[in-house]
Amino acid sequence: MTEVLVEVDDLKVHFPIKRGVFLDRTVGHVKAVDGVDLRIEKGRTYGLVGESGCGKSTLGRALLQLTKPTGGRVNFDGTELTTLPPKQLRQMRKRMQMIFQDPMSSLDPRQNVESILTEGLQAHGIGGDRTERRKLIAKTLDAVGLPQWALSRYPHEFSGGQRQRIGIARAVVLNPELIVADEPVSALDVSIQAQVINLLGDLQEELGLTYLVIAHDLAVVKHISDTVGVMYLGGLVEEASSDDIYRRPLHPYTRALMSAVPVPDPEVEDRRERILLAGDLPSPANPPTGCRFHTRCPWAQPTKCRDDRPSLRIIGTGTHRVACHWAEQIETGEIRPHAVKAEITADGAGAKDAHGALETALETPGGPVV
Ligand SMILES: Nc1ncnc2c1ncn2[C@@H]1O[C@H](COP(=O)(O)OP(=O)(O)O)[C@@H](O)[C@H]1O
Ligand code: SF4
Ligand SMILES: [Mg+2]
């Protein structure tokens, strides 16, 4: 049996929207994360995907208590973090580290690499005396594939890939158990992305790390993840083992995301279903009622999809969880897709469809069905 390191239960992060001269009148809330349950097992990788603005970074930050959750619970290795007093939380922090998308903006340009790596050790009072810290830092540089001369250099003297290695070294030097990597390769050239992903995989094996890897692109998390969770507008819509989610995506939103990933095999590529979603992501300040995806879903059915929010439920006998009322009927083909007109929402999302340009189009091998 594998042990669970992180357990998230009904996590919510609602940011108040302030208006007025002194910005003290709350006129609404951005529901960035709105009721997420997930578990991450020790030594495993959970890949979290979804389009920009769906709440992935907020979820990652709330998990580490860098953003205070509005509701719900986060249990880390048996300790409830949401109610932990600040002093204990600080001690807990060194066991959980974060890697950011853009190392250039997360690394202080005035600090050399040695100082960047020493800072965290000093802040947490770990790594022993000066000599021991130097040894630890030298070992960490080796582990992330940076030369020792890097110590006296500054972030701008490195390439994007090397800078991300510095960002990884800064996290790993503290000997954490959990790393939240928020879009760790999104800012890198495609040729460098695989190297950084492979490095994360090697470090995990060597150090027994547990990862939450966030990406907006399914292809990035495919190889590194044991479990993949797909997020839409503040909630998880599907969760399964990495193999299952790629072989058998069940939620219409996951199918749309998958349909955007090209397949190397030309024959499979020809047969690939392509779903272009209508409109933009609706505003998390005013999310659609019922199933949050119903305004863009080609399989949406009256009136249940609009009225009832589907919860994540296990489909079949394994661990595959899907938040769709009609997952089984969609899979068997009993419910067929239809055209969707993007709705023009109050904040302008979906307004591009005013000319009918963003209607959902679904193509199957036999040609467009809508
Ligand atoms: N500090 C904040 N205050 C108000 N709204 C925020 C804040 N941080 C994020 N948001 C909003 O929350 C939603 C989710 O953002 P984010 O978690 O960054 O999404 P993602 O990482 O998936 O792109 C967005 O609508 C964003 O504008
Ligand atoms: S519940 Fe309805 S709207 Fe939501 S994904 Fe399923 S079919 Fe589409
Ligand atoms: Mg983000």
TrEMBL record:
Molecular function GO labels: ATP binding
Keyword DNA repair among record annotations: no
Domain ABC transporter: 6-258
Domain of life where this protein originates: Bacteria
Keyword Zinc-finger attached: no
Entries under InterPro entries matching the protein: AAA+_ATPase, ABC_transp_ATP-bind, ABC_transporter-like_ATP-bd, ABC_transporter-like_CS, Oligopep_ABC_C, P-loop_NTPase
Record's keyword terms, sorted: ATP-binding, Nucleotide-binding, Transport
UniProt similarity note: Belongs to the ABC transporter superfamily.
Name the record gives this protein: ATP-binding cassette domain-containing protein
Source taxonomy: Bacteria, Bacillati, Actinomycetota, Actinomycetes, Micromonosporales
